[in-house]
Tn3 family transposase (Acidithiobacillus concretivorus), 988 residues
Amino acid sequence: MPRRSTLSAAERASLLAIPDTGDEWIRHYTFSESDLSLIQQRRGDANRLGMAIQLCLLRFPGQGLLTDTMVPASLLEWVGRQLRMDSRCWPQYAEREETRREHLLDLRTYLGLEPFGLAHYRQVVHDTMDLAVQTDKGIVLASHVLETLRQRRIIIPAMEVIDRICAESITRANRRIYAALTDVLSADHRQRLDALLKRKEGSQKTVLAWLREAPAKPNSRHMRRHIERLQALQAIDLPVGMDLLVHQNRLLKLAREGGQMTPADLAKFETQRRYATLAALVIEATATVTDEIIDLHDRILGKLFNAAKQKHQEQFQRSGKAINDKVRLYGRIGDALLEARKSGADPFAAIEKVLPWEDFTASVTEAKSLARPADFDFLHHIGDSYTTVRLYAAPFLAVLKLRAAPAAQDLLDAIEVIRGLYDSNARKMPADAPTRFIKPRWKKLVVTGEGIVRRYYELCALSELKNALRSGDIWVQGSRQFKDFDTYLIPAGRFDDLTQAGALPLAVNTDCEAYLQERMALLEQQLASTNHLAAADDLPDAIITDSGLKITPLDAVAPDTAQSLIDQAAALLPHIKITELLMEVNAWTGFTRHFTHLKSGDEAKDKTLLLTAILADGINLGLSKMAESSPGMTYARLSWLQAWHIRDETYSTALAELVNAQLRNPFAAHWGDGSTSSSDGQRFRAGGKAESTGHVNPKYGADPGRLVYTHISDQYAPFSSKLVNVGVRDSTYVLDGLLYHESDLRIEEHYTDTAGFTDHVFALTHLLGFRFAPRIRDLGETKLFLPKDDPGYDALKPMIGGTLKLQLIRTHWADILRLATSIKQGTVTASLMLRKLGSYPRQNGLAVALRELGRIERTLFILDWLQSVELRRRVQAGLNKGEARNALARAVFFNRLGEIRDRGFEQQRYRASGLNLVTAAVVLWNTVYLERAISALQEHGQVVDETLLQYLSPLGWEHINLTGDYLWRRSAKLKQGRYQPLRPFAGA
């Protein structure tokens, strides 16, 4: 029988913990008349109390009263009050063990419970295996086992038995997964998979290692190399639909396990497991490389367009002086002609007075050469870079298996024509080549009097292909990011079942007419209220005139009296090394226990080694330099630990542990209750090997970079971070952090700056139960939308932008609900859907209808903003916390000049996750010691105004030593107590 433990000690304790709150006691432990009758049949208060407690524990958690069960005194008192007796008689219960057993037998009969036996064990293992093929998380499986036993009225066995059930279910599920992935493989498939473990010809790497290399610079040469990788993966020719045979969670984990193993390790696997692992690696690598190739194409075209714009601007600048001279000359000629008309003189003689006629004729010719057409554009310069695209276009189009929606079928037909030209080595475009996809901007270049110009036709098609892939009009077989739009959503049949059962997990009335009636009534009420205030000039700190909206800037949030307290508290915080801080926070929270082994699920045995690897990510030092700076550490040990214990999900669960600790800390309640949050993007330059992987956004300058998009709670806890492309609007990632974090925070209201909002985000946040409150720059230019025409809101006219198209919402209501449900259930990420819905050129019915829904919510928000100074203050305070957190992150991430230099995207993600975990640890440590500092001030007789505590911040780092050698020794100062001693008071 499998011996591997699937549960940590903390998980074991939590699964069968006795409830400790009144609400849970009421739900589980309220006695009925028959319960009380049975209990009162016992003789003596102690036996009646014992019988009652056994009855409670058999109902929940379901084990009964074991010999080592510690019943909370508060529960004893609560049960005693129901029985009208003194619970202090509890120690006298069951001085005879036989009494306990007798009570247990009577209660089993009364409750209709069965003792757990071998038959139950086998049945539960079999039932749990269906869940184990979807996930191998022990806590999920164990929770399922317990729920199954309770439903079947079977007494819960010891936790060791539950653990064995989960382990055996995982083992059997693994065998089923291996069989599913290998039974469809032919002998040729297996031979091609075995070849992946051999060295690639002319290289020291295996074929598998070569296939999994990240792409280099976005140019034709590296594009062709990456296309070769995809061609090699496709040549393995795994059976179509193989990726659907296994749940995606397990397939991904199997691929990750295989990716961390050496070819020698994989070769030692038993046959079925080896081929299943290799097949999972190929499936995962195919999707990854496909998406990377599309991204490379996107970035290459981006570079070409930017170069064309630059060339266009430089050319125009070079002509600037000559154009200015001509304008001045023709100004003089114009003056002379006007004077001649006034005096009745000969206009031609007037021109000759300015300059000789021959010179005038030459100047006209020169002016024509300097003049640009009315549709002045840079696209003609794109043709100069055609060779760059031509070098990879043929294999690029050949390797992608494209499919199209009807709206993009003409574009796909054009791609087929281009493929045919490359296959046949033809040069001339066929006269009947599809042209409906060509935009007017391209038309004059592509279609001329001599026919279709191939270079511009091809460049136009490839540019439109890039846009169509983004929007979902065209999708790619084998891709992860560019699949058919419908496949991202929950199946239509399942959605219909949820709708009919009234079980859609959304925060709004799912009946369209009822929903619209409610929102329109609220909108009309808010419009009338705001219009009345505006007409009377009574809007708080705001005024609407014909020239627009003007809002008075908010005063400083923190009063002057708070600064003295801030300085005093900061002066008391202990000086500490970052290593000591992390060790202390881990001693409080045990967050390192979440970094479990990828394969076995065991905790890391060497906590110091683990903390070193985490810190290497957090301060951007890297494993090699960290090994040099940490006595006793080696790169090999750190690299092994990172490979097996550090992953996105382990970082996420460890972060949740710290965020939850902050949420439970009573001092953090001075800053908020954890119900509001803000998010913001922080750019880090991509340097060194990572420079080619970075993206350029003119907002941040010309240097390539990456953006870490972070969500922070009102208690300063950074509960989510995501490494993203700087070229994508921040609003794309707002919902990801709110929906997919693993902490206990329950966010109700969320703040962003202008880059964080779109109408689509307004719509989806509302549907999913969040109040979205962005700080919108140039708010007066953000229009209000009305329920109907000519409503008579005269005072608001400068801000009115139109009428809502409610029929669009009605027409696509089911599609909107299906999309929101899919995002809520995690079938697809919100960011992926927002990218597609907001992409050019497709403005399909769903996107437009969602925009209209967002306009309702945006209008309601703006009306609230105009009426509420308190809302404006909340938003400003929330965003200020995020900006202050960015300053802390910049200070922590100081190595390598604060640049991300890892070429692999996975390592870049680890940098972002490590940074967020370390900053969360700093926030928690500062919170604990700020509380101690305030207590110390009070003990020294200082009266502390508690209303000023909200202005303290746990984001300081001046007292934390982030540099030097990284030694992992517990501070000797902690020997006398749990905490570091505060610094002495000034003058003490």
Notes: DSSP finds 39 helices and 15 strands in the chain. The CA atoms of residues 22 and 350 lie 101 Å apart. The radius of gyration is 34 Å. The chain has a mean pLDDT of 89.
